[in-house]
Design goal:
Elements: E1 4-12, H1 18-34, E2 38-41, H2 48-57, E3 59-62, E4 73-76, H3 84-91, E5 95-98, H4 102-116, E6 120-124, H5 130-136, E7 144-147, H6 150-153, E8 164-168, H7 174-187, H8 201-213, E9 219-223, H9 229-240, E10 246-249, H10 257-260, E11 265-270, H11 276-289, E12 290-298
Parallel strand pairs: 1-11, 1-12, 2-3, 2-4, 4-5, 6-7, 6-8, 9-10, 9-11
Length: about 325
């Protein structure tokens, strides 16, 4: 039986970013240096395949430090943690490694600087996301106000309209964030922002690549986890860029072949916490059913690397 022809528009960049690679390497290096178990507070990154792979090597994932026994080694996830977490680890003499993405740490430092200079911080982000919880926890209660959308930006109450700054979660929609910032600037002309964009390079690049392929795709697949902010933003970006038939899948088993019926041009990308092996798995499953021609669409090249903590660098 002849296979239907299918052109796959392969977005690049896609998948793992430097912050995710560093976080996973920290857990793997800690397991090699100290031996299992290595406890990890929260999912190291939002991807079950990655988490289960590390569990098989001896990582134990917990939500809070009270689940970690005294004297154990613990890693903080790439999303960052409130200051109370390392303080508690020190109090209990836990040996901890911080896998917070350096670009998230940058947001933390900026927020602290604004606070020292007497400005209240408006944080643009999603309530309940671990990165947002970590950033909120860098300063005393009330020093940071969370804004999730344009509507909230138009109504948020602040202490002093002339002493304000804003920061953002690193994995937001670039377009949505610009709209929220514009609304804040309309209300508070004196508000100051980061010297460099808080939304990370990887989030921006993956959204740009999706915008490039979405208009020419009949449907688009995003490989990523349902609790991954950057992956969900890619779905939204694709829909807004002209591809109304967009689906988030964790791996090949999630593919809905009826949903793909009649497609001639399929976009394919992956969120920053999805490893390339899952993208390969999805593409291989598609090749089994279709006569596939791949068109790689590259909007930029990435060469950023982040160093491991000194404790894990072999002399």
């Amino acid at each position: 039986m002849d296979k239907s022809k299918l052109t796959v528009l392969f977005a690049s960049p896609r998948g793992f970013c430097a912050g995710v690679e560093r976080a996973v390497e920290i857990v793997e290096a800690a397991l090699k240096r100290y031996g299992p178990p290595i406890y990890v507070r929260h999912e190291i990154v939002h991807n079950r395949y990655v988490v289960e792979g590390l569990e098989a090597k001896g990582a134990v994932f917990v939500e809070e430090l009270d689940e970690v026994p005294d004297g154990a080694h613990v890693v903080f996830s790439a999303h960052g943690v409130p200051k109370s977490v390392p303080a508690e680890a020190q109090r209990r003499h836990l040996l901890y490694l911080d896998a917070t993405c350096p670009l998230v740490s940058k947001v933390h430092r900026e927020s602290e600087r604004h606070h020292r200079e007497g400005r209240q911080v408006i944080l643009i982000g999603h309530s309940g996301h671990p990165e947002v919880e970590g950033t909120l926890g860098q300063l005393p209660e009330g020093a940071i106000v969370l804004v999730e959308d344009v509507a909230q930006a138009r109504t948020v109450k602040v202490d002093n309209p002339t002493r304000l700054s804003y920061a953002t979660q690193t994995t937001l929609s670039v377009d949505d964030t610009h709209a929220i910032v514009a609304a804040l600037r309309d209300r508070f002309p004196a508000i100051t922002g980061p010297k460099q964009e808080d939304i990370c390079y990887a989030t921006t690049n993956r959204q740009l690549a999706v915008k490039e392929i979405a208009p020419g795709a009949d449907a688009l697949l995003v490989v990523g986890a349902p609790n991954s902010s950057n992956s969900n933003r890619l779905v939204e970006v694709a829909e807004r860029a002209g591809c109304g038939r967009t689906m988030l899948v964790q791996r090949a088993l999630d593919l809905d072949w009826d949903w793909l019926d009649g497609i001639e041009r399929l976009g394919l990308t992956a969120g920053a916490s999805a490893p390339e092996v899952l993208v390969d798995e999805v593409l291989a499953a598609i090749r089994e059913r279709y006569d596939v021609e791949v068109e790689e669409v590259t909007v930029t090249r990435e060469d950023i690397e982040f160093k491991l903590p000194r404790e894990l660098v072999v002399a």
